[in-house]
Amino acid sequence: MPFSDVIGHEQAIEVLRHAIAADRIAKAYLFVGPPNTGKTMVARQFARTVNCENPVGEDEGRLDACGVCHNCVRIEQENHPDLRVIRPSVRVDVSERAEDVEAALGEETEGVSRTVMTGSRDVYIELPDAVIYIDQVRDLIRHGAAKRSGARRKFYIICNAESMGIEAANALLKTLEEPPPDTTIILTTSREDQLLDTIVSRCQRIRFQPLPHAELRAALHERFPGADDELIRAVTAMAGGRYGRARFLMDAPDLIELRGALLDLAASTAEAPLAECLHLGEKLAELPERWWEASQQAEELAGATSDVERELRNRALEQLHRRSPDRIKRIQMNELLDILQTWYRDLTLLRKASATELVVNADRVEQLQELARDYTPSGLIWASEVIEDVRRDLAVRNANFALACQTLMVKLIAARRRR
Length: 419
Fold this sequence. Notes:
The protein has helices spanning 10-21, 39-51, 70-76, 98-105, 114-117, 134-144, 166-177, 197-200, 213-223, 229-239, 243-250, 253-268, 277-302, 307-323, 327-352, 365-372, 377-395, 401-415; strands at residues 28-32, 83-86, 90-96, 119-125, 154-158, 183-189, 204-207.
């Protein structure tokens, strides 16, 4: 999407436009902001605008990419030879089937033995606990030494740069100290404090912020004019000010339904007897895997990957699941715990004041107002604390997953009774 279609981030975009117009593009940028706020999207659009063959809006001071030239199209698809995008990944060695190779190579496989064609390849799967490998950084460095292939300027985008280990970070630092000519490196991060100070000091910092909920709702109403208002309010609550995430969720009804089931579960703890904790714990334990499956289905529908790439990715995920059956559940539980935190945050807010415009779960405001009266401030604070305790137990202490879910339900039930 061109700069003109980006929702929010006006200040960041203005800085980048001015750099292009003045021909003062930095060798390295650090895009800092909460996860999934559009940092990579803006970085990619920056690369498009710099390399656009027919830029528009220059006379009006609104420089933008045309969106249809060769460079624009290939950069948007992330398959331009002068663009590299590195994302944290889990590397899985996946066996290739001969028919997959035939489909990928087409006529190039004529006369080649099917036995020769079978083998294995590394497949990189993006997961929240993934890392950026030293090999990925070394490949970027090697690419930087090559000549440009049709673009005015090479761009390297390193997403979630805090995921680099010390070896990968030091390798990148050497490139930042002596960057290749006509090359810009963009690092995105939500945790600037986890980057080496020497890396941060060599980058021009640009900050990104999530959209206010009212602005996000207005943007969604404009983008989806026929959408139900309750759906938009639910999506706004889940997106947390992230327009790209909100657009994805508008086409992911199963995730909206599962979020509703989770909030129903949280609401039920206000009246449930302690004896119900095992049953509620079992219901909670089922949600992460269902959430993951719904997310993957929505990603496949929204993605532009080939059938071969999709098949390899699915086989890689199957291998990961076999090696560590509850890994996906533990990872996905983080997102569910985030949603639970917004529930108790909203209850705390409404317990103290009636300012509903600050409520995250705006589609549940009437239910929240009714329940808020049943809690004490100390009970709500304690509920938020036990959610974070469970998050830490699952991530750091490798706690039993089912038991952790049951323990959480016991404490959330007890939160209403806490004085």
